[in-house]
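Q: How would the structure tokens look for this protein?
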Amino acid sequence: MNFTHTEDRRMLADTLDRYLADQYPIDTRHAIVASGRGHSPTHWQTLAELGTLAALFDEAHGGYGGTGFDLAVVFEALGRGLVIEPVLHSAVLAGSALAHAGNADQLGLLGRIMDGSLIATLAHEEPTSHYALQRVGTQARREGDHYVIDGHKAVVGHADQAGLLIVSARTDGALDDADGLSLFLVEAGTPGLSLQAYNNIDGTRAAEVQLSAVRVPATALLGAEGQALATLEHATGRGVLALCAESLGAMEVVKQQTIEYLQTRKQFGKVIGSFQALQHRMASLLIEIEQARSAVINAAGALDADRLSRERALSAAKYSIGRIGTLVAEECIQLHGGIGMTWELPMPHYAKRLVMINHQLGDDDHHLARFIALGSSH
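A: Here is the predicted structure in token form.
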């Protein structure tokens, strides 16, 4: 397998890195978080114009990428820049679900997602789902030429800024059944849809979503009724890879910042990087980060493989990233000492994002158990 990036990917990565370094410093990010919107319309539009969103879709759907390595390149850059724009939720989770199961009319929405004029989000996780894709308590029942949806969705990314929510609901079966899940397109402002929005600990935006007798036309059904689990697995798998790559990009930044600090901070008349104990700790981190990089490459390469190989590679990567990302966050804060916790320094904001990524779309415990279960079913 050839792991060398194409010229287009290298150009996109370079363009993104330059733009984010020049226009998206930590103070700009702080201002966006404080605005209460969770994203900057200006930066969001610029990211779309740079081709960032279109790179996440294949040519058949109007994009120019869409492979695992395209996702990895984009999200590594976003991780390095500590970007909080809704790329994951709109272009990857919601966009992948639409591309996977949409009919001709629904696929027409992808152009608006790629040009940034429509923010979409996937409203799937629930307070009691514990990362299990099939555990859905939200109910949808057919009434004539409409569906009526009732339920509660938790920690839905950028839901208060989204014009479209893709909502999972059970049209048949019991709570944990694999069959009986359906997806519905619900426009923002639909009667019965209410949101309670908030900032997460890392500054990203989310909301609790309540659906109380939300009526949508039958044409809002995405894919076949009762057969949404495959689409959810597809979209979530791409989201897992994106998160892993984002974490890797963030790790690279905090690694470099920590090395520079160890080479300049002096104690007892010497730079602290000359102390053997700190050298050993930093060397261990470098090895762990390279292991994380290998896991991301493996997952990106397996994204279009058979289901078992793909899902095992994704869970292996998410487990490794969750464990290593948390370790890197903790160690780099400690190696900086007290200054590592100051608001003005980017370090703690990267650390919070690394810890948060571990808990999105399944934490390290969940994916370790899933990896083992997938292996035993082989």
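The first strand starts at residue 120 and ends at 123.

Strands lie at 120-123, 139-143, 146-157, 164-170, 181-187, 193-199, 205-217, 221-222, 266-267, 270-271.

Upvote if useful.
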